Amino acid sequence: MSLQVGILWLCVTALPALAHEEAASGVGTGVVYAVPGGWFEAVMFYVFAGTAVLSAIGVCVSRSVVRMATWLFFALGAISVLYFLLAATFIAAIQLIVYVGGVLILLIFGVMLTSQSPWVRFTPSRLNLAVAGLICVGLLVCLSSILLEADFGAPLSTTPGVTVEAIGRRMLTHYLVPFEIAGVLLMIVMVGAAHLARQEKQ
Amino acid sequence: MTFAALGHILPELILLVGACALLVLGVTRVGRAPGALAGATCGVCAAALAATLWAGIPDGTAELSGLALSAMTFYVRWLTLLVGLLLVLLNGRQADPAEQGEYLSLLLFTMLGVLLTASASDVVVLFFAIELVSVPTYVLAALSRRDARASEAAVKYFFLGALSAALLAYGLGFLYGAAGSTSLSAMARAIGSGAEVGGLALIGLLLVFGGLSFKIAAVPFHAYAADVYEGAAAPVTALLGFIPKFAGFVALIRVLDVFGWAMSPGVFWLIWATAALTMTVGNILGLIQKNVKRMLAYSSIAHSGYMLVALLVGPRLGEGPMSNGVTALLFYMAVYGVMNLGAFAALSSFRRGEDEVELVEDLSGLARSQPGAALALCVCLFSLMGFPPTAGFLGKVYIFSGAFSVGADHAYAGALAVLAVIGVLNSAVAAAYYLRVAAVCWVNPERERLAPASGMSGRLGLTIAAVAMIALFVSPQALLSRARTASEPVLSGSVVKGVSRLGLDGASVPSGISAEGYAALSE
Q: What is the complex's ipTM, to 2 decimals?
């Protein structure tokens, strides 16, 4: 049941996002769906930021792994919408494809293939819960008190439309070294995972 | 980045290509021949070392996006490759023969990560380089032996490592938010130093320090060390004691350089408390260990504490050779890498039945059956203890005298002196558990004969380490002068002020840590 709700919710959240991408690509033609900084953007921001935060809390408080995955589904989807609102369409699409589409499905597969029952439950001890709660509250207070006073400076750019082409060019020129290291890293992860996951030889 | 620029990163390229070739070679018939892969790995290391020495100290003119080559790069390169060669010697015959190719290539990849950490001038590169150091070590811990304990160690190491990577990434994200650029030199300009540093950058610094504390196993991020060291096989433990720690400290130097080393009180006291706690907790828990590998794990935690003292002293100009914290740190890192490796080489060169030496008691009477190995082990232990005539003594002298001699004008001179006193007291406490191992070797009657482990490479590594400890005590000048040259780019404080240090001919050359070439490229 919760999975269906999840998919439904994602479809609902993806709709305005997709519409916004249409708008971003149609900036030159005068079709503007959401004026940056306008009331519509503000409403969208609060709705989806709220969704992301509540879902993240849901991940933490639910006991069953599958429920956690479902909450994560909402959280990741809502964050992707936030990227759309920032007109960072590329990273928003990546967020949808990689996290919502890939990582989450892998997670469910992992639970399916490794556990005896899909309804594995986490039962942390009271002490752990208390310590974790204390740390979380401490972090929240410290981070929010500093962030509220922080000087973020002027926005780097207010024009939407960093194109995929520009990102690709930058990745293969300016960020070539980290791009290559990331490739090597993924290969190592693959080698390691293949070795650790394979069956013992006789 | 031009094609010619690739010549500047030849050692890294050799490691990369060599590691990939080993992966392929491991599954061919050539690779199954005994010793072929280990020999090839030694060859790759030696080639990279030769390329490093041939290229010499980079002059900082290389235009590579995200990388800035400096004297520090040179130091880290040759030290990593030299210790790496010893590690390959140790690891030559350990793993399952069918996994030898992957095993040795992962070893090369983790060294590549250290090399890249030393030249990263962009936080994206820095993050990836640290991950390139970490990820292979998780797999190496798991592959090191067929034992449930190794798997448990790898899982613990992986999860805590993932958490540390998240902390590091979160922190670097805050730094990016504060500076608006991922380049370290641009960050230094935007963030400023001392009291100018804003809240965002401060959160970033604290989170990055937390993330890197995992890599150097500083308290309170030390919890994994004992379990992982105990679970993994001794040759891999030798690697875990040096490679991630070295990368962590190099990254810390680079990050603190962004902040200009003029620390705000909060940051200073945080690192001060971490150093004091790391030394004390490491040594006290080391005292109560019965397992010799767990004991060495706590000893390695304590050593991180000593090195944090040097980091806190920071780079200082023109006050004699002993007062520069970064020089002392780099010197100590080299000495620590070799002596720690020697201790684990000793453990891996004997077998008790089918298993490794585990308990301190297992070494009973070693001096009677194998006096040479026992002597070499004791030299390494005395060096870890910081006892003359070994290089470990000099390393500790440089670190603590640096903390004592910062001068009264230093804002925290008193606090640093107190920290040095804590360090000296800790060294005395640590002597108890090192001496216990030595006593068990020489005084206790033989309990059970320890068989030499197959292969000579472990013995060779142990001998080289012990001889190096004595040799570096007799003539530390060569290493010390190299360490001093390596800390020059840090000394000039060039990142913050944008000044260049003087080149040999009086012309200004761009400083190493901040690559002007890179800055020019990014603008």
A: 0.84
Q: Determine, yes or no, domain membership for B194.
A: no
pLDDT interval class at B308 (50, 70, 90): very high
Axis-axis angle for helices B292-313, B325-348 (nearest 10): 170
A190–B contact, CB cutoff 8 A = no
Within 8 A of A178 by CB-CB distance, chain B residues are 66, 122, 124-125, 128
The answer to whether the beta carbons of residues B103 and B95 sit under 8 Å apart is: yes
Annotate A122-191 with three-state secondary structure.
Answer: CCCCHHHHHHHHHHHHHHHHHHHHHHHHCCCCCCCCCCCCCCHHHHHHHHHCCCHHHHHHHHHHHHHHHH
Entry field: residues in chain A? 202
Give how many domains chain B has, as a whole number: 1
Q: Select from B188, B259, B172, B75 the least CA-distant residue to B516.
A: B188
* Rounded CA separation B198/B454 (Å): 58
The CA-based diameter of chain A, rounded to the nearest angstrom, is 68
Q: Is the pLDDT of residue A3 over 60?
A: no
Of A150, A178, A189, the CB nearest to B199: A150
Q: What contacts B341, CB < 8 A, 6 or more positions away?
A: B83, B86, B87, B90, B238, B241, B242, B461, B465
pLDDT band at residue B1, thresholds of 50, 70 and 90?
low
Q: What angle do CA A115, A117, A119 make, to 5 degrees?
A: 110
pLDDT of residue B504: 28
To the nearest whole Å, the CA of A1 is away from the closest chain B CA by 32
Do B125 and A177 form a contact (C-beta atoms < 8 A)? yes
Give CA–CA dist B411/B399, Å, rounded.
Answer: 19
Of B124, B135, B202, the CB nearest to A185: B135
Domain assignment present for B180: no
In angstroms, the CA B141 to CA B234 distance is 10
- pLDDT band at A30, cuts 50/70/90? very low
CB < 8 Å to B136, chain A? 188, 192
Q: Which residues of B touch A173 (CB under 8 A)?
A: 1, 65
> A146 to chain B: nearest residue by CA?
B199
- Reply yes or no on whether the pLDDT at B502 is more than 50: no
Task: Show residues of chain A in contact with B521, CB under 8 Å.
Answer: 174
Closest by Cβ to A177, choosing from B125, B180, B202? B125
Q: Does position A20 have pLDDT exceeding 80, yes or no?
A: no
Cβ–Cβ < 8 Å for B331, B402: no
Domain assignment of residue B124, yes or no? no
pLDDT of residue B505: 29
What is the residue extent of each domain of chain A?
A: 2-135, 163-202
Three-state DSSP state, A52: helix
Structure tokens at B522: 């990014």
Give Cα A138 to chain centroid, integer Å: 24
Q: CA separation (Å) from B250 to B12, B86, B429?
A: 17, 21, 28
d(CA B395, CA B322): 10
Q: What is the share, in percent, of chain A residues with pLDDT greater than 70?
A: 72
The CATH number fitting domain A2-135, selected from 3.40.50.1000, 3.30.390.50, 3.30.450.30, 1.20.120.1200: 1.20.120.1200
If you count DSSP H runs as helices and E runs as strands, how many of each does chain B have, helices first?
Answer: 22, 5
Segments forming the whole domain that contains residue B340: 264-491
Residue B104: CB atoms within 10 A of its CB come to 28
Count of alpha carbons within 13 Å of B418, Cβ hemisphere only? 8
List pLDDT tens digits, range B228-240: 999 888 889 999 9
